[in-house]
Amino acid sequence: MSRDQGPVAALPGEHWSREVILEDLSATAEFAEALAGQLRPGDLLVLTGGLGAGKTTFTQSLGSALRVSGPISSPTFILSRIHRSQDHGPDLVHVDAYRAASGSLESLDLASTLADSVTVVEWGRGIVETALMGADGSWLDLELIRAPGAASTPGTEPEADAIRTDFSETEADLLGARRRAVLRGYGPDWTQPPQL
């Protein structure tokens, strides 16, 4: 999968699929908080979406709701980071499978942290599910899809050939772009959608 292409198709075996429109960062944070309330140690959440879709932003909100320590940033250059729980809840393990796939996920030793953590893997669809959960395992897949032109004020989208010289943040940038979130459930633990 290329970072410039859209995500690969959903995997076979999904039990259900739910779509939510996230209007801004506040809605994204609310959705992440609701999902965090349903996650338990040992859960795997695979995040799918193109560049700028909001995978790391969502994970930051999820980590805040799980009350884990440390700033959550894109795992692109560190591949994997463990954020410890601040109140006896599950730790959060945040992984970038895009670069890890070329090296090997085994080198990250995710199996050693899986039982006590919520594991979030960006760019992991079709790569980590069976490797971490086994052939009969359970996981959630969250696909974030940024709406075209979402960061622009309506009616002010630049022309395709225009050169951008104003890099100041707009109100839309500060509030966050509108996106679709598609949550899918796999395996015996996720035969029914979580109550969000």
Task: Sum up the structure in keywords.
196 residues, alpha/beta, Rossmann fold, seven-stranded mixed beta sheet
Report on the structure:
One of its GO terms (molecular function) is ATP binding. Belongs to the TsaE family. It is found in: Cytoplasm. Keywords: ATP-binding, Cytoplasm, Magnesium, Metal-binding, Nucleotide-binding, tRNA processing. This is tRNA threonylcarbamoyladenosine biosynthesis protein TsaE. With 196 residues, the protein is of the alpha/beta class. The chain has one domain: Rossmann fold, CATH 3.40.50.300. Helices cover 23% and strands 23% of the residues. A 7-stranded mixed β-sheet has the order 1-7-6-2-5-4-3. Strand 3 (80-83) and strand 4 (91-96) form a beta hairpin. Helix 1 packs across helix 2. The radius of gyration is 17 Å and the shape is globular.
- Please name the CATH topology: Rossmann fold
Oligomer: single chain
Question: Order of strands across the widest beta sheet?
Answer: 1-7-6-2-5-4-3
Coarse morphology: globular
CATH class: Alpha Beta
**In the CATH hierarchy, what is the architecture at level 2?**
3-Layer(aba) Sandwich
Largest sheet descriptor: 7 strands, mixed
Radius of gyration: 17 Å
Give the tally of structural domains. Answer: 1
List low-pLDDT spans: 1-7, 151-160, 166-171
Q: Compute the number of helices.
A: 6
Number of extended strands: 7
Question: How much strand content do the residues show?
Answer: 15-25%
Instruction: Please provide the ordered H/E string of secondary-structure elements.
Output: EHEHEEHHEHEHE
Query: What is the terminal separation in angstroms?
Result: 30 Å
- What's the overall average pLDDT, rounded? 78
The name of the CATH superfamily reads P-loop containing nucleotide triphosphate hydrolases
